[in-house]
UniProtKB/TrEMBL annotation:
Record-linked NCBIfam families: mazG, PRK09562.1
Pfam families to which the protein is assigned, alphabetical: MazG (PF03819)
EC primary class: hydrolase
Known catalytic reactions: ATP + H2O = AMP + diphosphate + H(+)
Keyword Transit peptide: no
Family membership: Belongs to the nucleoside triphosphate pyrophosphohydrolase family.
Protein name: Nucleoside triphosphate pyrophosphohydrolase
Keyword list, A-Z: Hydrolase
Domain of life the protein comes from: Bacteria
GO molecular function, one term: ATP diphosphatase activity
Record flagged with keyword Nucleotide-binding: no
Length: 272
């Protein structure tokens, strides 16, 4: 089976079992644990997202395979420890998908909007949390999510029980307040207080994004890409002058930045 390219998931499961075999497996794979594999899982998920964002479909297939391997890795360790198997993982998620889509797999009508289906989904999830003895509104929001994503999820949970601002105007007022508190902390307080106030400002910015219907993680990724693109353009223009950022100064780089920015805006306008 190991060499049968048409064996599908069973081939991958057997490969992982062999890699983890304590007698004949790979020493590195044998030494791994849930904790050591988790960072790779996060990295692979981001690489999938990166391929999607770049529209790199030729890369996406490979990245999805790498991400699938992480699930197979955890399942093999779970089977070794007697916690779960790959089949039980598949069965559990399949059961969950059927239960959460009664309008597809049950008797409920499909004649409702995507927004209503989202509300129904959240209602079903809330019932699941209640069944799992999760009592608080914030129970079950994973601690180790990326900070922006966790902030968004915490705020959504709080909003469901009425703990939310009425509109974006209230959020913008809070941003002004938090910015003033950060400036005060910078001038009069220590590093811990400054970090607290900076975190508060970031948290409210995430809330503003939520009220505007934006994904803060996606928005920041987009800005990161824009900054990278523009800075590399500045470097290219400096290179044309026989210079580099190290041999330039802020005034020159700022002027080039503004020129690159203006060129992008003009190109965008010409495309309509």
């Amino acid at each position: 089976m190991i060499h049968d390219r048409d064996a599908g998931i069973e081939r991958l499961l057997e490969i992982m079992r062999r890699l983890r075999d304590p007698e004949t497996g790979c020493p590195w794979d044998i030494e791994q644990s849930y904790a050591t594999i988790a960072p790779y899982t996060i990295e692979e998920a981001y690489e999938v997202a990166d391929a999607v964002e770049r529209g790199a479909m030729d890369e996406l297939e490979g990245e999805l395979g790498d991400l699938l391997l992480q699930a197979v890795y955890f399942a093999q360790m779970g089977a070794e420890d007697g916690h779960f198997t790959f089949q039980s993982v598949v069965r559990r998620v399949a059961d969950k998908m059927v239960a959460r889509h009664p309008h597809v797999f049950g008797n409920e009508s499909r004649d409702k909007s995507a927004e209503q289906q989202t509300r129904d989904w959240e209602t079903i999830k809330a019932a699941e949390r209640a069944g799992n003895a999760q009592k608080g509104a914030l129970d079950g929001v994973a601690v180790h999510l990326p900070a922006l994503l966790r902030a968004l999820k915490l705020q959504k949970r709080a909003a469901r029980v009425g703990f939310d601002w009425a509109d974006t105007g209230d959020v913008l007022a809070k941003i002004t307040e938090e910015a003033a508190e950060l400036a005060e902390a910078r001038d009069t307080m220590g590093p811990d207080e400054i970090e607290d106030e900076f975190g508060d400002l970031l948290f409210v910015m995430v809330n503003l994004g939520r009220h505007l219907g934006l994904d803060p993680e996606a928005a920041l990724r987009r800005t990161n890409a824009k900054f990278t693109r523009r800075f590399e353009a500045v470097e290219a223009r400096l290179a044309e002058r026989g210079r580099s950022p190290a041999t330039s100064d802020l005034a020159e780089m700022d002027a080039l930045w503004d020129a690159v920015k203006a060129q992008e805006k003009a190109a965008k306008a010409s495309r309509g």
